[in-house]
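Reopening this one. Same input as before:
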Amino acid sequence: MDKEQMKKGFRDAIPIVVGYVPVAMAYGLMAKNAGLSIYDTALMSLMVFAGASQFMAVGLIASFVGFGEIIISTFLVNFRHFLMSASLSSRLKNTDKRWRLIMAFGVTDEVFSVASFYKGDIGPSYLVPLEVASYGSWVLGGILGHFMGQALPEAVGSSMGVALYAMFMALLIPEVRENWAIAVLAIISATINTILYSFVGISKGWSIVIAIIVASAFGATVFKNYKGGEEDEG
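Same output, byte for byte:
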């Protein structure tokens, strides 16, 4: 491996690490309040390494939703990772397939964003340190958050449930600024979920799954030719 690229990978990971630790701690607190043990909390971070789906999973677990619904919901939320991995894969021209499989696991929104600004072909020398530092900070932050939850008053710990909504708002708002169609789809999805769960009586997990699928299908049909951020020419 190229030592200079490795150093750059670790350096470029610093902003990700700084951002991951507090968010991961919020996840750890939520997991503690949802009844997950420290081992369950750490294992989820070790095996999943996806903030949005982990927050969603913990929220659904706390609501006693079935595992099938949790798996499908988190799969749909994480589907974008296929697109990000495919994009990065096109720049791994001379990389062995074994390395590609290893690095595919470490692709997150933040890792993808940083790696996208890297000029030239990306190799393990750069991407592995970038992912390892990000991965380590996420796992460690979750563990610290769980331990912190044991020391905090129950009322304070329970209030951390707002972190789930903060996470999804942080993902949604930047997209809405670039593309108003995203806001329309978010409203449609939220409306469908509310109707199915509150009025029809469908469980929280399945109402989320149905809302995601319907809103996605609507967006793919109605906005298939729409490009966000572009003004119509007169």
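So the earlier flakiness isn't reproducible anymore. For the record, The CA atoms of residues 87 and 160 lie 35 Å apart.
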